[in-house]
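Per-residue structure
===
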Amino acid sequence: MPETAGDKPMKQLIAPILAAGLAAAAVPAHAQAPAAYPTKTITIVVPTAAGGANDAMARTIAQKLGPMLGQTIIIDNRAGANGSIASEYVARATPDGHTLMLGYIATHSMNPALQKLKYDPVRDFEPIGLVGYSPTLMVANSSVAVKDVRDLVAQLKAKPDKFTYASAGNGTAPHFAAELFKLSTGTVMTGAPYKGSAPAISDTIGGQTQFMFPSLFTAYPHVKSGKLRALAIAGPSRSKALPDVPTLKEAGVEGVDVTQWYAIFAPAKTPKPIVDKLNKALNEVLKDKEIIKRIEDHGADVETSSPEALGALVKSELAKWQRVVQAAKLVAD
C-alpha cells in the first residue's frame, strides 16, 4: 500500500522546534492591550491575487473568525513583488491587531532566503498561529504530450527548454520546487513568474505554460475536474487526496521536498494580550468541522500552533531555505 500524507509531515517539521517555542513563551509581554479589542474592522492582507490558495484559505478563516471576535473581517489582496508588497505593508502597519497577514512559506522563508528584502520575516512580525500545510504537486497541462515524470525528463534532455513552467513568482514554493527539479534531473525549463498562483495555474490550464508545482491546495480542484494532470508529489510521501500519484522520489527524482505552510501574522510589537486572543480564536476556528472539511477538500491539512511555536518554525524554515539557496546556487531572476 502507498504511504499517505496526513498530519505527519508538519508534525515532524514542528516537533524539533516546539521546545524552543515553549521556552520563548517566557519573553516579557509587549505594552498592555486596550481594554476592548477589536474596536473596528479587521483586515487580513493576502500576498497573492484573488482566487489562489492563500486567498481561499484567508476567506475561509475570516468567515468564522469575524463573528467569533465580534467584528467584520475584510480580505485585502496585495499581490506583487512575490509577496513583498503585502509583507512590507503589514510590517509597517499600526501594531494594534486590526491589520493581519495570511503569510506562508514564500513570504516568511523562501523569498527572504533568496534575496534581500525591505522587511525581515522574523523581526518585523508577531506570529499569531499556524493554519495548515499542503504538499506540493507537480502538474501538467491536460493536453501536453508527456506520459509521466521519466518521459518528461527524457524529452527535456533531448530538447532543453522544450517546455515552460509557471510559478507564483520568484522566491515562491512553485519556483523553488521547479528549480530543485531542474537541478536534480539536470534538465532545463524556462520559468514564467506570475503575480500569484491563480494567474499561474490559469495559464497552465490554458496551455501558455505546460507545467507547474503548485500546492495541492491550489491544484486539487483543477486535477479533480480534469483541467490539470497530476504527475507527482514533491514531498516525502503520497497524498491521501491523490493516493495513486507517486512521489517524485518514486519517479526517480531525488531532493525535491517542498511542504508548503500557511499562518497568520501581525505587525511586530502587537501587544501580547492581543496576540494571545487572536491565537485562541484562530485555534477555535480551526477546530470547526466545516472549516476543516473545506480546507481538506482542497487537499490541505489543518495544523494549529502557539505563537511561540510558529515563531520557531519561521526561524527554522528560513535557515533551511537559505541552505538550499546556497547549495543550489539559486538567484532571483
